[in-house]
Structure formats: structure tokens, C-alpha cells
Amino acid sequence: EPEVTQTPSHQVTQMGQEVILRCVPISNHLYFYWYRQILGQKVEFLVSFYNNEISEKSEIFDDQFSVERPDGSNFTLKIRSTKLEDSAMYFCASRGTVTTNEKLFFGSGTQLSVL
Amino acid sequence: QKEVEQDPGPLSVPEGAIVSLNCTYSNSAFQYFMWYRQYSRKGPELLMYTYSSGNKEDGRFTAQVDKSSKYISLFIRDSQPSDSATYLCAQASGGSYIPTFGRGTSLIVHP
Prior knowledge:
Chain A is mainly beta. Helix content of chain A is 0%, strand content 50%.
């Protein structure tokens, strides 16, 4: 079965540094998402992306965050100046063919540790 | 308000037991209900979804929605050790399909 691929699986960074988390959504999918999960807490929606623009975002997704689909296959989440509280598992997801319209497919996540 | 609430557990049952997982929601505007399963160190995986009140069955799994009481349930028959995971309920609007997740209930099925 096709899958969403995320790299790296674990990223360690210093507070204040920029990080880019990378995702390869399922080919032919049209809608792309980032979620995060702080240890022991809910999986929280960050942003959705469709037709090369943000379609919806949560309160968490402030000016420190940005997303990009640079080359038609990758989908990235950038955090400009990381804070300790950005430490979390970040999940990428995609959906969007006629037959699987409602189903989001999630990747295995990138564990971000901010020191 | 977009809250979905679940008891985090853990819920521990013997193999073969019938498992009942429950969830409440507050936003009546969201008409699309889902159950996801999440194994350790993995992303959520959609198990079942439904738009309507009543029951929906898929193999050993039955999802139940009661819109009058804003209550969502997932029943697992003949539970297996491989069912051990965290089960997340979620709801979404029919337009965006963006799930709002509950905290998840940890299920342990022991042999």
C-alpha cells in the first residue's frame, strides 16, 4: 500500500535554530497536512495545504511556522526559531483521490527534540 | 469549541474479550466521526468512519454514534494481542475532513 514518508525520524536541535521537517505524501494526493503530538497529549492539527496554498491553520501555527511544497513531491514544515515547547512528534498526512476522499494517510512522524 | 474527550486508560483485557471504547464530543456542527488506531512510534491509521447515527460494522469492529447524547463508541470483538494500541476518536466537518482528535485510549490485550 502506498505510504507517506517522513524524514528524518528524529531531529535534535538547539533552541533558536531553524528546522525543516520533510514529508513525501502519497503520489496523486491533493491535500496535505501537518499535525503534532506533544508527549502524553492529543494529536493536534497545525495546517492544511491545497493547491499550493494554506487552506486552514490552527492557533498553534503562528509566524514561526511555514509550509512549502517546493517541487511537486515534497511537503515541508519549517520552524524558524525553535522553542523548547516545540519538542513534539510531528506527523505529515495526505489525502485526496476520488475513492479515498475522507481518509487521511499519516506518516510515521519526526520526533523533534529542542534542547 | 472543538473538544473531543476520551478516557486515556490504560484498558487491559484478556485475549478474546469484547472491548468497548468511548468518546464524547461537544461540537454538533461536525458531522463526520472517525476512529483511528495508533501503534507506538507510528502515525494514526484510520479504522472506521461514519456520518450518521447508529452502527457501522467492519469485521471485528463496530462503530456507534449517538448524536442525541454526543457519544461515540468503538467495539472490538474477539480482541487479539495485535489490537494493543492507542485508539483515537475524532470528528470533522464534512467539508474539510480535518480530524480533531481525542487524547486516545490505550488498549492492552494480553494473551
